[in-house]
Structures are given as structure tokens and as C-alpha cells.
Amino acid sequence: MKSIYVDHAATSPTHPAVVEAMLPYFYESFGNPSSIHQFGRKTRQAIDEARAFLASTIRATEKEIIFTSGGTEADNLAMIGYASANKKKGKHIITTAIEHHALLHTCQHLEKKGFEVTYLKVAENGMISIEDLKSAVREDTILVSIMYGNNEVGTIQPILEIGQFLQEREVAFHTDAVQAYGIEEIDVKKMHIDFLSVSAHKINGPKGVGFLYAKNGKQIFANVFGGDQERKRRAGTENVPGIVGMKEAAKIAFAERATKREQYIAFRNRMLAIFEEHELVYKINGDENDFLPHILNVSFQGIGVESLLVNLDLAGIAASSGSACTAGSLEPSHVLAAMFENDKERIMSAVRFSFGLGNTIEEIERVAEETAKIIHRIKQ
């Protein structure tokens, strides 16, 4: 029986058209973009074209795009780079308790360097309180980082409202948009976003490449030292095949965005309908209105998540219990722990289904049916 992958929030398969676009840059157009000869000029042109297109997808300018090795490096560069360059203005940073570990561990590093970090709590729907944010901002606050859409439960934060408030206070605003990019419409100017992180492998691009949007005029110090690449903000010979692949993946993602959103909502609704048909006792984790359509996180009452995931895997279905970066760990999800402090059973019975390239309604129906069978079997 064919295996089914419903863990696209962890990583996504590379689109065949992306692979095709990348291939020439491995063996034909292989020049170093910093070289002045024709081999270098050709790859430089490819990077420039990719930078221009990717900038256009978030309403930014070409000079505001810094290519990185992925979302983690983009988060690091934004947080450490801006904090280091602006510590004379203050050393207070605000983030949330449900950020990706790429952001939380960066904040912990900054705390060791003398910065103070406030971690905002979230409600049971995974949403921060704007009032809590307003109360947390101080005279020495220099940077706020709040993820666009959560990678585990899909909750989308009130980014526009946050951006407007922080602009008035002249506090820099970073958002990790790794899960939202290619799914949500993002306008960094309209939303008053100063820094934004993106990763290619979440949108059917290659692993090992991403970008940081850094608003013109916002000074950051480099984290990687060497050459003068990326306008002296990120040293190292550019990953040309990866950058070309990311551009192609983004082109496909944005061309199909509306269709994919409808498809993912249909998947979500069909899966929940089957759960209802089988009279499963479950709770959806995340906000019921503001959510990423490709992520569905569900807690099944009385079911241990490890047993459920192992049985799903034996049935040829790949799902997840939360962040890919903690896969294999018995630690409860820090996101769910922040949302449900006093409900350990809900935390330990949560499964994340995430949809993407290649999934069909027939596959989703099979996933839901197998989930129901396994749950009934475990309870018996």
C-alpha cells in the first residue's frame, strides 16, 4: 500500500520543476558569483533575478533580501545582528513562549550576552494578547519577535496590529514567517515588518537555503565573517543552485496559492468530518478563525501520541507530534505546554497533520479512517 506523507510542516518534497531549474547550476553554470569572468557573471545574474523576484513576493526591494542557509540562520541573523548593532539603545527584547527553537535558543544566547528577554504568554488558542505586548514594551525595548503563523498549531498572530503599534514606539519588529510564506499574503511595508525569515524547504524548494528580509535603514551586524557577499551582511559563496531553486519554488507557490488554500481547507474539513462519523472524542488545538490552512493539530482524549504515531507509521502514514526539531524526544511540546499549562493529557495526546504537494482528498480520507481505526483499537 502506498505511503502517505502528512508532515509537510516539518519539510516538504522538492517540486520536480524546482529540481529541473537547479540542475544547470551544478554542472553548466557553476561559476563563483563573485568572479568577474563570464562564468561568474552568469551565476550573479541568476542570483540577482532570484533576489528581485523573492523581494516582490513580500513587497520588499532587492537590497532588503539577504540569502541565508535557511530559516534558522535568518532568525539568528535578525536577532543577534540587530541586538548587537543596537545595544546602546537598550538591551530589552520581547518574544513569545511558542516560538520555534531557532528563535527561543537564540534569545537564550542573547540573555547570556547581557540582554533581557520577556516571553509573552499565549491564550489557549495560541494567540498573544496585544495588551500584554503593550504592557511589556519599555523605554529600553529595542526588538520584538513574534512568529507569523505557528508551526505546530497553525495559529496566525495579529501581525498588522503588532506592526502598527511597534512602529509608533520605534521598536524593531521581526517575524518568523517560515510556515506562512507561500500560504499567506505578506506585505512587509503595509504590516510594518522590519525583519522576516523564510525557508525554501517548506515551500517545495531545496533544503539549506532561505532568506532574511531586513528593512532598509535597520542596521545589523554580520554573524558570519569572510567575504563581502550579501552587501557585507552574510559572508560565504552563495548557494546558487539553492537560490535558483527557491525562486522557482516561490513562483509555483504564489501562482497556486489560492487553489492550494482551498484544497487544504477541504482536506481539513473532510478529515474532521470523518472523525465525527467515527464518534472520536477530540479537540482542535489552535485558533478556530486565524490559522494556517495546511496545519491541523488535534488532541484525541485518552490516547498516547507515541502509540498513535507508531501505529500510523506502521499503516504507512507519516504524521507528527509537533516541531520537527524535537522529533524523537519524549519532551512535551513547548507550544502546547504554553497553551494548556494545566492539561497534560491534551498536550500528550496531540497529533499534527500537515498537508502539501502530492496529497489528494483520497489520501486524506485514508489518513482519517486509519486514525479512527487505530484509536478505537487502542481504546479496546
From TrEMBL:
A molecular function GO annotation: metal ion binding
E.C. numbers: 2.8.1.7
Record key words, sorted: Iron, Iron-sulfur, Metal-binding, Pyridoxal phosphate, Transferase
Catalytic activity: (sulfur carrier)-H + L-cysteine = (sulfur carrier)-SH + L-alanine
Name under which the protein is recorded: cysteine desulfurase
Stored PROSITE patterns: AA_TRANSFER_CLASS_5
Organism: Anaerobacillus isosaccharinicus
Entries under Gene3D superfamilies matching the protein: 1.10.260.50, Aspartate Aminotransferase, domain 1, Type I PLP-dependent aspartate aminotransferase-like (Major domain)
Family membership noted in the UniProt record: Belongs to the class-V pyridoxal-phosphate-dependent aminotransferase family. NifS/IscS subfamily.
NCBIfam families documented for this protein: PRK02948.1
Classification via Pfam families: Aminotran_5 (PF00266)
